[in-house]
Amino acid sequence: MKEKASEQNIYECIVILNHNEIENVITTVTNDLNPKDFSILHKETWGKRSLSYKILKNKAGYYFAFYVKANKESLENFNKKLRMHQDIMRFLLLATDDVPERTPPIARDISDDVDSDQKKRQQNAESEIDSEDSGWISFKNPALLAQYISDLYKILPRRFNGLSSTQQRILKREINLARFLAILPFVPVRKK
Known about the structure:
By secondary structure, this protein is α+β, with helices and mostly antiparallel strands. Helices cover 38% and strands 26% of the residues.
């Protein structure tokens, strides 16, 4: 039984902060964890994005993703510290098999101020990669998920989108994750 408790798995953690200081947050959250039981494998910055709905009276947030390797006990401590940290607006922990090699589509459309030359280079790189991302159903690909949502923000049924039942379940799960992380809205936004 002790072997299972010390078994380490890989987890993906997406964090929404109200400022851009992810390093300070990571150090305060992980300072008491044993390095043998908990290690950060990879970090990604998704940039500042406007939220689909307000979270704690904020209209925008900084998105960060990092991949950790941890056992069950240290992951529970990490989860507790994330919940109690005052700068974290929302977070999500997911079990994963491995660390992805390429950056997700959501990380490529960062809304920070970028000069025109960088934008042109970024658009050229995106056009090359868009063909690879077209079939990637994930909450990290909001442009694709938006195609499967109606004008009333309901998920389109199978008879309209042509997906199999397994694909429809995956689509529903990924849309719900995107809605939880304020990437997609739950309901249409009505302006006053």
